[in-house]
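Lab notebook, bench 4. The sequencing result for the construct came back, and we need a structural model before the next group meeting so we can plan mutations. Quick request posted to the team channel:

Model the 3D structure of this chain.
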Amino acid sequence: MEGAIGDGAVEGYNAQFTWTAFFCCLTAASGGALFGYDNGVMGGVTSMNGFLNNYFPSVLEKQNTVNTVGNLYCQYDSQTLQLMTSVLFISGAICELTGTTAYLSRYHGRKRVMMYSGILFMIAAIILAASQTIAMIVVGRVFQGVAISFASVSVPIYNSEMAPPHLRGRFNQLYQLVLTFFILVAQVINLIINVTDAVRWGWRLSLGFAFCPSFVLFLGGVFLPDSPNSLLERGKPEQARKNLQLVRGTKDVDKEFNDLVEFAKLAAECKHPWRTLFSKKYRPQLILSACSTGFQQWTGINILIFYAPQIFLSLGVSTSTHAFVQ
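Done. Here's the predicted structure in token form:
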């Protein structure tokens, strides 16, 4: 079969690995880079002397005072600094809880929402890199929060719908893989900036580099094919069949396509999604999803990702040294 490798069929589907599907999912997974890069970069930026000197001189003064070494709370006791960090998550949560992201994903399509995410994150990167006031930084962080909300929903759904059924889990993990890798990328960029003479204005570079993965996601939203499921939801069955044939590498997709049509009809008949979500039928899936997410937070790994530089500084490690050990 041209353009396909492997011989695994699932549930009678003629669905095999294709490089087309893999490329689509890998490009879409750049959405994970947005969240990963922000996770990794902000802790370093908020510990850079150039950034603190511009916007939080009182924090820098406390940080440099010998008497406060070891007391992280006293060094970073700034409500404005906390607002700057947390407003991203607040804006993202508002998008999710109001159903804005889900609505756009359903009625505009996954790939278009990815394009929206890329545009918003590019705007945010420009605002943050060129910021002159705290207000500009907060606005940029709000844009980032909305962009991450869009990407966090649209990319995993897109990858699940484009992947062959027997490889769905692996293709979907590309998002998490890219997210984690870009946490490392952000830390490396902060490290390079901390050990060079660019440290006074280097924080602008750290924040501005977010433009690169967001541009990749934007291009994906423009040029990637939309998922068959999304096209069926929006009443475009002919294009959905063509796209399914493209990512499967064969024209023999009748069984899988017919099942997708049936699933789309069932989804359209769901008039009360929240009631359905909390129904007894889906309770095990809901509990498993909530617990896996909750326990991941409770491990405390996010504290280390977000605040590793501050933790090391509070232990008395010098700025240049903590850049290496983080």
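The chain has a mean pLDDT of 85.
Will bring this to the meeting.
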